[in-house]
Amino acid sequence: MKTKMKIAVVTTLMLLSGSLSAASVSEGISREEKTEQKAARTLQNSIDALENIMKDPENYIPPSLFIQSEGIVILPGAFKLAVGVAGGQGARGIALIRKDDGTWSNPFFVSLGEGSFGLQVGAQKSDIFLFFKDREDLLELDETELTLGGDIGVAAGPASRGASAVTDLEFDSEIYTYAHSNGLFAGVNFKGGVLTYNRRVNDSLYGLVDVSSDEILYEVESPYNDQVIELIDAINYYGQ
């Protein structure tokens, strides 16, 4: 009993002195550790989302789009979509850039605010995919936000269907978009969403302060970890 009282007294004193937060006492984990866990979970969910959409034998993203794209954004479990509902709730995801040598960069984390959809699908949450024609549209995200359909053109992406896969695809829009959830697939014309750079999550994953997209792309060792390797391997596989 005395030992328990002593621990309680020490904990109270640490809280009063500011050396131990209430959250860390009650949950046993720091905010930084939570952010690291979110980063790892978002990476894994992005890998799973990509595999799920490409497993659909009748509707999937054309392989040639992976080859031609200079930037890819994946927002796993992004939006609550329903027929007749025009808005989305926002999402956290990852972005990758095709580097000068043709390989894919380390991912950096992005957030997408609410927007409207040209096509609704009846699902609770959907994985959203954005394929960029020009990587420059993503390279400046750490300095400025990007409004889809405002700063840059957005269109529903064409789908491959069974044996009639699209092999001669050309970019007619600056971004092609897709949504997939619970077996439902749709090209989504998504406009008005604001794409931003998630600095806190990027700093946490890469262990840096105010890390820029250029640092992540060109200065941090690439691929950064096993999850990044798995993600890039999946993108390269589905682009064959």
Description:
With 240 residues, the chain is of the alpha+beta class. It has one domain. It has helices at residues 2-17, 22-27, 31-54, 63-68, 136-139, 199-206, 213-218, 226-238, and strands at residues 71-81, 91-97, 108-112, 116-117, 123-132, 146-147, 154-156, 175-181, 184-187, 190-191, 194-197. The strands form two sheets. Strands 1, 2, 3, 5, 6, 7, 8, 9 and 11 form a nine-stranded mixed sheet that branches. A two-stranded antiparallel sheet has the order 4-10. A hairpin with a 2-residue loop joins strand 8 (175-181) and strand 9 (184-187). Helix 3 packs across helix 6 (199-206) and helix 3 packs parallel to helix 8 (226-238). The chain is globular, with a radius of gyration of 21 Å. The relative contact order is 0.18. Residues 1-26, 81-88 and 116-123 have low confidence and may be disordered.
Which short descriptors sum up this protein?
single chain, 240 residues, alpha+beta, two-stranded antiparallel sheet, 8 helices, globular, disordered N terminus
C-alpha geometry: globular
Provide the gyration radius in Å. 21 Å
The number of helical segments is 8
- Which stretches are poorly predicted, pLDDT < 50 over at least 5 residues? 1-26, 81-88, 116-123
Beta-strand portion reads 15-25%
Average predicted local confidence, pLDDT: 77
Q: Into which percent range does the helicity of residues fall?
A: 25-40%
- The number of domains: 1
Q: From the helix content, strand content and strand pairing, which structural class follows? A: alpha+beta
What is the total tally of β strands?
A: 11
The ordered H/E elements are HHHHEEEEEHEEEEEEHHH
The quaternary state of the protein chains shown equals: single chain
CA(first)-CA(last) distance: 66 Å
Largest sheet: 9 strands, mixed
